[in-house]
Write a structure and sequence with these properties.
This protein has a single domain, classed as TIM Barrel, CATH 3.20.20.70. It is about 30% helix and about 20% strand. The strands form two sheets. A ten-stranded mixed β-sheet has the order 3-2-1-4-5-6-7-11-12-13. It has a three-stranded antiparallel β-sheet with strand order 8-9-10, with no helix packed on it. Helix 6 links the parallel strand 11 and strand 12. The protein is globular, with a radius of gyration of 17 Å. The two termini are about 15 Å apart.
Length: about 260
């Protein structure tokens, strides 16, 4: 289990946005907007030995800010947002450790296996992370959400499906979209599901409000899941979790 930091970008600025509130033509519900550039956070994570964090472009107008982040911490950050087979390799060239894909893989509400194969061919399995951010459907099954988490696909997050996708990527990034950014507690059922079924490393995100929630991810996840903290983190304006406390939890593995 490791802390995986994040840099979320909206309109070229580092922000923390409530999950599911990002819609075209509307102002998203924002918990935090930083006056500091993306490179500040990237250099902070590099200084503290925190590889594998993710930079997410939330909409258009974020490419330059994302380039600034991944070049400030070469081979230390993953990049997501609008990734496809045509542009993925260019992000690796800019210095990203890996690319993160969602909507290109789950277009039109379903898994597009041909797109997944093209993307894996473009960058290789060891440089591809699949974002399986999800929410419960009407039957209580967790299904992947796309299009800024506004659309639920027919892809059920299960042991068999995770095993299937693991052949194409080296890691999963999974936000509990229904609790993301709300600082109301983690989704313990999703954490347990992922811990029991993921065949490769996976990072859980969503709802962490304090260190007790971090400990819940560790306990329920049996130490098998990485985690990220957004709006509750003090470097993003939160008052529930101190960044330095998370760094200190990493111990020697952070070096």
């Amino acid at each position: 289990m490791a802390f995986r930091p994040c840099i979320d970008l909206h309109d070229g600025q580092v922000k923390q946005i409530v999950g599911g509130s990002l819609r075209d033509g509307e102002t998203p519900e924002t918990n935090f907007s930083s006056a500091l550039p993306p490179a500040y956070y990237a250099e902070l994570y590099q200084r503290d030995g925190l590889p594998g964090g993710h930079v997410i472009k939330l909409g258009a107008g974020n490419d330059q800010a994302a380039i600034e982040a991944v070049t400030a911490y070469p081979q230390g950050l993953q990049i997501g947002g609008g990734i496809n087979a045509d542009n993925a390799a260019s992000w690796i060239e800019h210095g990203a450790q890996a690319v993160i894909a969602t909507s290109y893989i789950f277009a039109d509400g379903m898994l597009q296996l041909e797109n997944l194969e093209r993307l894996t061919e473009a960058v290789g399995r060891d440089q591809l992370v699949l974002d399986l951010s999800c929410a419960p459907n009407k039957d209580g099954q967790y299904v992947v959400a796309t299009d800024r988490w506004q659309r639920l696909t027919d892809f059920i997050v299960s042991g068999a499906q995770l095993e299937r996708l693991a052949a194409y990527c080296f890691e999963f990034l999974i936000h509990a979209t229904h609790v993301e950014g709300k600082r109301g507690g983690v989704d313990t059922e999703l954490i347990a599901l992922l811990s029991d079924t993921t065949p490769i490393p996976a990072t859980y995100a969503g709802g962490i409000r304090d260190l007790k929630d971090v400990e819940a991810v560790e306990e329920i996840g049996a130490g098998r899941l990485h985690y990220t903290v957004g709006s509750a983190l003090d470097i993003f304006g939160g008052d529930g979790v101190r960044y330095e406390d998370l760094v200190s939890r990493e111990g020697p593995q952070a070096q």
